[in-house]
Amino acid sequence: MSFKVFFSTEFILSGELAVFLKTKEHELCCFQKVDPKQNISKAMVVEKFDGEKFSKLNILAPYGSEFNRFSVVGLGSPMQEDNDFWVNIGGNVFDMFQDSKEIVIFFKIKDFKVNRQQLKDFVTGTMLKDYIFDRYQTKKTKSVDKKIFIITDIANECEHVFEESKNIVESVNIARDLINQPANFLGTEEFVDQVKKLQDVGVEINILNKEEIEKMGMRALLAVSQGSVRPPYVVVMRWLGANKEEAPLSFVGKGVVFDSGGISIKPSSGMEEMKGDMGGAASVVGIMHLLAARKAKVNVVGIIGLVENMPSSTAQRPGDVVRTMSGQTVEVINTDAEGRMVLADLLWYCENNFKPQAIIDLATLTGACVIALGQSYAGLFSNDDDLAKKLFNAGIKTGEKVWQMPINEEYDKLIDSDIADVKNSGGRSAGSITAAQFLKRFIQKVSWAHLDIAGVAFGTKANSINKSWASGFGVRLLNEFIKNNYEL
């Protein structure tokens, strides 16, 4: 982390950069002490600056001031904004000071009382925007160590805000780092090595190797991995922050470290992005780190399946029939529909071994979900509308939004097989739904939700809080979901 944040009620009258916040409805507040010559007022008149959302006004070398630069950031109408508003404002403000060393932000807005959560969201947004992945560039972006002073009337309430935001951002960045890594540097074994680091914050780790996976009968997961020289792993992570007798929540992640499509090989264009097909597993690792780092009062089990899907003389073939851990048989129609094969065994294993309150799986599962929802929402599929609503609300709060899609018997019929219990692809029609229907066949009684994050885990356009290829989607969503529903 390249900067630290301090809170104060006292005005600071000199420094490198002073940042002010202005709504559309109100006059700019509390700048007279810092700008006695009214540089800001004059500039706003000349530029016709009215505080439009995300608008920016810069004033260099302001006359009569001890600051080198003033910046005014438009807030629009914050009273009417979504809950992720302050996170996005924080990221936008970061763009203004990323090259500065000492920044003073005057968090005083006329007739608008800012609360602790909004300040925390703001700080989180600035820190999220600071991430850059340049590990393999010989000419790295120069990082400037920063000190940020936030002037606010509620500074006494903000003692732990920076630490709390730092825990969130470090956990999101763990997921981002994993997804951004090229597959020749992050295979299944290297991924396991990264997960082991969670032991440092108190996460219990159990690693199941190929022989153990075979003994348990996870043949669907093994079928995906059999074309690669890289060994498969199932990693179980446990955080016990509540009464040990309390049933855990469970997060399950697809961890295909590279997906060529197998024998049903993908087109070459864009295949390089399939290094990110372990985005679900990366998010599970990130949320487990966050829960442990902040000592969450909840019991959670995280399970990821790590494989590589490659074509070779040992790879599974279209037309193969595979017996899963559940005993159900699967006709392999398409070897590129591999993520659901991995999850089928993991979901069955999770429900039967840990008896969770609920299972939420995350997977970059289908291109069809990207076609349906684009890159703004993850697809949400669930057998429990109450669970789905809780996830939806957490998405609105964090900006990691989800949209519920249908699952029912009509769609389920599309994956019936003539020679096995189920086939792993229902064809082009309703592709994201039939993928979810496939997963549902491996759920028995537990409340379950499936998040198809194919459109949001990586490759999204740069936005207010992320300029990286990987987003780390899911970490903040699941953290908010837990805080709002399981730590009351």
UniProtKB/TrEMBL annotation:
Cytosol aminopeptidase domain span: 334-341
Annotated keywords: Aminopeptidase, Cytoplasm, Hydrolase, Manganese, Metal-binding, Protease
Active site (catalytic residues): 266, 340
Top EC class, one word: hydrolase
Transmembrane segments: none
BP GO annotations: proteolysis
Positions contributing to Mn(2+) 2 binding: 254, 259, 277, 338
Co-factor binding comment: Binds 2 manganese ions per subunit.
Catalytic reaction(s) noted: Release of an N-terminal amino acid, preferentially leucine, but not glutamic or aspartic acids; Release of an N-terminal amino acid, Xaa-|-Yaa-, in which Xaa is preferably Leu, but may be other amino acids including Pro although not Arg or Lys, and Yaa may be Pro. Amino acid amides and methyl esters are also readily hydrolyzed, but rates on arylamides are exceedingly low
Gene3D superfamilies in UniProt: Leucine Aminopeptidase, subunit E, domain 1, Zn peptidases
InterPro entries (UniProt xref): Leucine_aapep/pepB, Macro_dom-like, Peptidase_M17_C, Peptidase_M17_leu_NH2_pept, Peptidase_M17_N
Subcellular location, record wording: Cytoplasm
GO MF terms, alphabetically ordered: manganese ion binding; metalloaminopeptidase activity
Pfam families: Peptidase_M17, Peptidase_M17_N
Keyword Cytoplasm recorded: yes
GO cellular component, one term: cytoplasm
Residues that hold Mn(2+) 1 according to the record: 259, 336, 338
Enzyme Commission designation: 3.4.11.1, 3.4.11.10
UniProt cofactor(s): Mn(2+)
NCBIfam families, per database record: PRK00913.1-4 (NF002074), PRK00913.2-2 (NF002075), PRK00913.2-4 (NF002077), PRK00913.3-5 (NF002083)
Protein's job: Presumably involved in the processing and regular turnover of intracellular proteins. Catalyzes the removal of unsubstituted N-terminal amino acids from various peptides.
Family: Belongs to the peptidase M17 family.
Name of the molecule in the record: Probable cytosol aminopeptidase
Organism: Loofah witches'-broom phytoplasma
